[in-house]
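tool=predict chain=A
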Amino acid sequence: MIITQNKWDARISTANSTPSDFILNRIINLNKFLQVGGVSKKSRFVGMKVDNFDRNLLPKPGDYYAVEGLKLKGRGPWRNAICPFHSDTHPSLRIRIETGAFACMACGAHGGDVLAYHQQRHGLTFKQAAQQLGAWKGGVA
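tool=predict ok
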């Protein structure tokens, strides 16, 4: 096994490589990515103060989806509903009631909370959706 490294890349030669070499290659690449800094999650919010966003101010998922007109069916942490992202006749949208995460098993629409749902459903930016849901503290960033 021959390991070559530079600032941006780390490779293991494929000559005589084994599955453990592949795993080692992945670990080396991950370490390089983390050392360089990777992609900041805040880079998505360029020019925006994310300090103005407070996730605790988002509405409770059960209340929000009821206001949006979704009839949640079932018990347990995941509930079913008719998906509003496509013409649906059988409940294919799955909603996690504790977090607001959603995933449609038919069209593939998905997100991690009510904010993501609101953005996709109404075609809004992050800031617009947060303002409409009352989770944006303060004025223009």
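Confidence is low (pLDDT under 50) at residues 6-13, 37-43. Residues 32 and 64 are 42 Å apart (CA to CA).
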